[in-house]
Amino acid sequence: TDIGSQKDRVVTEEEWLQKWETGNIGFHKDQGHPLLRKYLDVLLNGRSGLRIFFPLCGKAVEMKWLADMGHSVVGVEVSEQALKEFFAEHSLPYCEEPVPEISGAKKLQSISGNISLYCCSVYDLSSSIVGKFDGVWDRGALVAVNPRDRQRYVSLMITLMEKNSSYLLVTVSYDPNKHKGPPFYVPESEMKSLFG
């Protein structure tokens, strides 16, 4: 697989935090992602009351949308600012508590209890901390993790999935020699080898 010069590219946690601090968040969609609406049936598969995971969630508006449908939403994001903006922009009261298993991590949870957002690295999570999920909405996570960390990321995702879970994945297709990323180019062949 040729991902061009991207395979060695590294974006640090500090760089992501900087994007949030400076408002350089072109990846955020105020209206939600049209592909989630289009493929919602695939994610839900006729089921209600699901636990749905949002890796690298930012302040994705879809989290509130799915919670309002009666699902339980869990997200993870390194930027506390992004998580606080999510609750503020939706006028959702929340409480904050430390996550004893993860040094320095916080969980911000809606008072209604159906939205729990972890402020830490996705790699700090495990099923013993967050449980397992019926669905994953990966709108910008696989394309944001550093290419050298993809296998680690996907291995973690697989451990967080229930047996019948659905995984909706959005990627971008372009010539990786013309753009350094993120979002990074993930060819279909690599998706197949990563997820099996």
From TrEMBL:
- This entry's Enzyme Commission designation comes to 2.1.1.67
Which N-terminal stretch is annotated as signal sequence?
Answer: none
Q: Does the keyword Transferase apply?
A: yes
Q: State the top-level EC class.
A: transferase
As its record notes, the protein acts as a catalyst of: S-adenosyl-L-methionine + a thiopurine = S-adenosyl-L-homocysteine + a thiopurine S-methylether
Keywords per UniProt: Cytoplasm, Methyltransferase, S-adenosyl-L-methionine, Transferase
Q: Can you tell me which family this protein belongs to?
A: Belongs to the class I-like SAM-binding methyltransferase superfamily. TPMT family.
Q: Protein name, please? A: thiopurine S-methyltransferase
What species is given as this protein's source?
Answer: Fregata magnificens (Magnificent frigatebird)
Query: Gene name on record?
Result: Tpmt
